[in-house]
Amino acid sequence: MKNPIPDNFGELESCYDQLISWCDVLQAIADFLPCHIDEGLCGRLSRGLIPLLQTTHQLEERSISSALGLIMEVGKLADVKESRQAGRRFDHDAAQHVVFTLETLSEGHCRLSWEAVGYQLRSFVCSMRRHITAEREIIRLLQRTMGDEPASCSPNATAQTEAA
């Protein structure tokens, strides 16, 4: 029987790779505060972070949430889906705070201390990396269950996420 679940894992993996790259940049910004603020970089990140996160969340909803019944008990699905939605809301809210901070940094009038900015950026980065690692594990389980080769979520991709 052909699997009715859409396979957007490749596109989703691409979003994850981009998010990991952006996390690396945010980590570098946090690490080098207050020495150098690249206004252009902060502007690009602040304009692109929310759209990238929204695209990623939409792909997760279509690709992963719709297939969770393949790997878990029906009785737990509602709670898991609710928890996943709450996690996405948290990610979005945290990203909005990061965007605001990046905008104020690039304009030169951030009211937060350098320590607070670094903590906020690192907190967001750690949360994103954990989220991506967990989602990649779910993708791997789904692919195994569907009998697909985990080409779009190779062990190498998971190792790269964990190493980052």
Structure description:
- This protein has helices spanning 9-32, 39-63, 74-107, 114-146, 155-163.
- By secondary structure, the protein is mainly α.
- The chain has one domain (9-163).
- Residues 1-6 and 150-156 have low confidence and may be disordered.
- This is Hemerythrin-like domain-containing protein.
> Oligomer, anyone?
single chain
**Could you tell me the number of beta strands?**
0
**N- and C-termini, Cα separation:** 38 Å
Indicate the mean pLDDT: 84
| Structural domain count | 1
Overall shape: it is: elongated
Query: Which structural class do the helices and strands define?
Result: mainly alpha
The residue ranges in which pLDDT falls below 50 over 5 or more consecutive positions are 1-6, 150-156
What is the beta-strand fraction?
under 5%
* Percent helix range: over 70%
Order of helices and strands: HHHHH
> How does the major sheet shape up?
none
Number of helices: 5
Using the CA coordinates, give the radius of gyration: 17 Å
